[in-house]
């Protein structure tokens, strides 16, 4: 992988994570009107025509082999339907600080631990050092917000769900890697979402009739548009492509940009304050991510990527 191209992929990961972080503020407003699962369904289902159009234009076809259907269906069920629902209910049953910390912080650790089951990525000393620095930084960002981490029994269900998000999310990312050796990141993203939407639809049936559709305003439509175009179509393609070329273990540490971006959006648009601990945590996290990004991938991984391109 050429050095100049490598930086583009790392930049892509940072941009995607920042967009997802900014989406916390957008989604917070949308949840005042929409049922959470219905909003997730709208986000993914409305993105599908765009995915198929782009796939047809770029690659000339939109299908997948019949032998791959079960593989895509399982990943779509777990990585889109299951993961989205778990995120929603983890937030419902625990504090925002708990959910943010347990959803985000352990994810890259599990990706690194489970990585050898799916890929040939090695766990280097640089990755460990940079990862530890990034973990400390993201903990400062989340816990510096004032809510604190609450381990009381009333939040245990939500805490366990939030931790499960990290485990299942890491496995979902890693399970995509073998598929992206055979198909493009665009085709993988499209068909995973197809099956995710199919499995999610039955869970929304009770919500359609209870929605006040006539009461939707321009801000609601803008929230949907932002989620469909930017948070789903653009970021899914960029993230999956960059993750494949950088490696799942390294790429997932860049998820730590998400809470930092959410804090920045809260400060700029919702009048929330930023503590000194959060600012220091952002610097610490950024240092860890830069340290990780300076590592060169081994020759075997590079030759595999060049072969796949």
UniProtKB/TrEMBL annotation:
Listed transmembrane segments: 7-25, 37-57, 69-91, 97-115, 127-146, 158-176, 188-209, 221-241, 253-270, 276-294
Keywords noted in UniProt: Cell membrane, Membrane, Transmembrane, Transmembrane helix
Protein's name in the database: DMT family transporter
Membrane-protein topology: Multi-pass membrane protein
Lineage of the species this protein comes from: Bacteria, Bacillati, Bacillota, Bacilli, Bacillales
Family: Belongs to the EamA transporter family.
InterPro entries: AA-Vitamin_Transporters (IPR050638), EamA_dom (IPR000620), EmrE-like (IPR037185)
A GO term from the CC aspect: plasma membrane
Lineage top rank: taxon: Bacteria
Pfam family, one: EamA
């Amino acid at each position: 992988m050429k050095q100049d191209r490598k930086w583009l992929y790392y930049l892509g990961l940072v941009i995607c994570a920042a967009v997802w972080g900014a989406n916390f503020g957008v989604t917070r407003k949308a949840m005042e009107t929409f049922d959470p699962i219905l909003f997730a369904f709208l986000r993914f289902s409305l993105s599908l025509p765009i995915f198929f159009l782009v796939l047809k234009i770029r690659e000339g076809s939109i299908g997948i082999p019949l032998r791959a259907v079960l593989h895509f269906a399982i990943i779509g069920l777990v990585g889109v339907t299951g993961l989205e629902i778990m995120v929603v209910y983890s937030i419902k049953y625990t504090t925002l600080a708990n959910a943010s910390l347990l959803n985000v912080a352990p994810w890259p650790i599990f990706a690194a631990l489970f990585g050898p089951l799916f890929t040939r990525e090695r766990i280097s000393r640089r990755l460990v050092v940079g990862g530890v620095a990034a973990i400390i930084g993201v903990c400062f960002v989340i816990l510096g917000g004032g809510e604190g981490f609450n381990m009381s029994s009333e939040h245990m269900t939500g805490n366990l769900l939030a931790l499960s998000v990290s485990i299942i999310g890491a496995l979902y990312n890693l399970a995509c890697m073998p598929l992206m050796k055979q198909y493009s990141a665009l085709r993988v993203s499209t068909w995973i979402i197809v099956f995710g939407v199919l499995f999610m639809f039955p869970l929304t049936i009770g919500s359609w009739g209870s929605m006040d559709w006539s009461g939707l305003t321009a801000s609601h439509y803008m929230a949907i548009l932002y989620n469909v175009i930017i948070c789903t179509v653009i970021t899914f393609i960029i993230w999956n492509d960059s993750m494949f070329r950088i490696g799942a273990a390294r790429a997932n540490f860049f998820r730590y940009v998400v809470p930092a971006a959410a804090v920045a959006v809260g400060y700029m648009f919702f009048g929330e304050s930023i503590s000194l601990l959060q600012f220091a945590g952002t610097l610490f996290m950024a240092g860890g991510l830069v340290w990780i990004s300076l590592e060169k991938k081994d020759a075997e991984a590079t030759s595999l990527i060049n072969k796949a391109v």
